[in-house]
């Protein structure tokens, strides 16, 4: 229940982020009991590299405090969509924070937007969407994989977010988003292998005053098909972008300096001795990792104009978007 | 429907080709695009997103009115008969365009429609028909770009504003690119019901308006926007035209002045709750006089009035001149809040900025859910001063176009024992041209800035 708004104290049943180091971040549930693999009710113990954590002990602790483990310590944080993305159980490929941030801004979401998402997948992006549209908006999220739909809905309930999200089991490419969503959406987001098949349904779902669309695709062929479908259906401001984030490690480095001055003078033993003292220069630098993801996916964006502007199909935007 | 209708007083984004400009529409107002002066009165009553054609005013050269259009003349309607398979026969000797520049300008002054001009250009271009279809298209675009006569009117959104400012001059937003902005909002965990503290010394109001946009209408979220000068920049904030109730939840204060109020006026304001009513009932006499006596200009943090306009740095380019000029005029009138009667019935004028300071101090007293620093100055002293107001477990987010100040901050935070998850990052962002058989990254790219973020602990 710890995803809805800001909280100070850990309550029973909260999902809690356990931070050990920047590379060791986990999510645990502040439940006294849990089910063992055999289905028996057992004490909820979470094993970390620094020893065991009795999850019951978390209840009543303040977020942002240190907690002791049997062989060390860690810190507890309230989950945000970003921390959840880092720790969630992967059931599919997921959308990471740099893309998710851009998607939310590009879809122009505000706390009263209606947004449609497909597929739900592991619910990584859904959490970011829900934060953006609460409390007056709603997320309708679709997946054709029944178990993912169920897991996602249980998760949203456990996170205290059910009020703002409806999870539906449906193949959106063949069945669309349902007539009950005709002309209700401010924005549509697609993360599907064949997004161009869902775009015509998106057109129906978007409000008469128009709206935004974003499709995330790893492959350029998908992008090409999506772009031509978007153009055919009258979308404007069609744009494809890619965002990659690099995280730096800030370091102080000491570099030895070779003293080459004495090469110009005749060899003199005593002077040479003096020059053996090493000179060192300290510099501060930001070092990128030796490898990092070089590609996640392309974000293809577009605007469906309002009904009164749709007659201008062949619009100046489309023909000029790529000039700038 | 109503809010989709263009009215006087609205801020519009005027779009011509790839070019956009922010404009406030007033009766008898005009907008200057390049050399063209366009009268805008005709678009009032029309809807956003409509497209208008520029019609030259009889007897004038570059003065236009606007007329709604339902159909566009585009390159597709131009007659392109032949195209060469490749460009082996094209010799560019600088003479391939037979119309001179002057002749083209003359055509233009005769108010020939842009597709007519382009057609004439084609007819007079010796090489056009031997160009490949690909380069023909490029040529047409190049020409059309210059002669395009349509403008579209858009309602400002954070996305459009971020793009508009960045395209005009990244310095207008201290170098914040749209992806930077998106990440600042996420790392700061901006949402509808938190209390947030922003220090922003010059993003044309972009960060303020983006945060307020994410806080949303009819919610409980509040933002303290601290800035260093007499006035804050708020072009983007005004452009968003938030409803009054939402505008009121954004508290603009001068950084020095609000901190002085917090530390020096101490207990005086603390008793009141956040509602203005209660504050007004306080024995505000001494309190307000104390602050009033300080004649420092920094106390004159006048930018919170919903009617006041933004003021821009001198280095801002001329594109927003109209808005800027207007702001300067308005900001000269020092605005005071409504007179409040105190218990004894005497009327005490409490300056607007002082009420805002007090409002902000109440929030600071309770601490905030994230702190965002987007500073021209070195962020270190600002961050040090603001951190005591950050709740435990919440995030600090600092943006800078260069990484060195953030490196300093990184070490500072690492050395404090109450910070974890300190990250320094920057983005690579690339746009793609996607066209059949012609998909490639766009030939120009740019570089975003650096973001430092971290979580504060209770130690
Ligand atoms: C990559 S995952 C989405 C991940 C999600 N964006 C996240 O951040 O967790 C793609 C999902 O789309 C679903 N899917 C694929 N085709 C679909 C269709 N035609 N209709 C509905 N869902 C579909 C898959 O079952 C899968 O769960």
UniProtKB/TrEMBL annotation, chain A:
One of its GO terms (molecular function) is tRNA (adenine(58)-N1)-methyltransferase activity. It catalyses: an adenosine in mRNA + S-adenosyl-L-methionine = an N(1)-methyladenosine in mRNA + S-adenosyl-L-homocysteine + H(+); adenosine(58) in tRNA + S-adenosyl-L-methionine = N(1)-methyladenosine(58) in tRNA + S-adenosyl-L-homocysteine + H(+). Keywords: Methyltransferase, Nucleus, S-adenosyl-L-methionine, Transferase, tRNA processing. It holds the Pfam family GCD14. Residues 72-303 form the tRNA (adenine(58)-N(1))-methyltransferase catalytic subunit TRM61 C-terminal domain. Its EC number is 2.1.1.220. GO terms for biological process: tRNA methylation. S-adenosyl-L-methionine binds at residues 122-125, 143, 191. It is found in: Nucleus. One of its GO terms (cellular component) is tRNA (m1A) methyltransferase complex. It comes from the Eukaryota. Belongs to the class I-like SAM-binding methyltransferase superfamily. TRM61 family. Catalytic subunit of tRNA (adenine-N(1)-)-methyltransferase, which catalyzes the formation of N(1)-methyladenine at position 58 (m1A58) in initiator methionyl-tRNA. This is tRNA (adenine(58)-N(1))-methyltransferase catalytic subunit TRMT61A.
TrEMBL record, chain B:
Its main location: nucleus. Residues 273-285 have a biased composition (Basic and acidic residues). It comes from the Eukaryota. The keyword Nucleus applies. One of its GO terms (cellular component) is tRNA (m1A) methyltransferase complex. Keywords: Nucleus, tRNA processing. Residues 272-345 are annotated as: Disordered. One of its GO terms (biological process) is tRNA methylation. The keyword tRNA processing applies. It is found in: Nucleus. Substrate-binding subunit of tRNA (adenine-N1-)-methyltransferase, which catalyzes the formation of N1-methyladenine at position 58 (m1A58) in initiator methionyl-tRNA. Belongs to the TRM6/GCD10 family. Heterotetramer. This is tRNA (adenine(58)-N(1))-methyltransferase non-catalytic subunit TRM6.
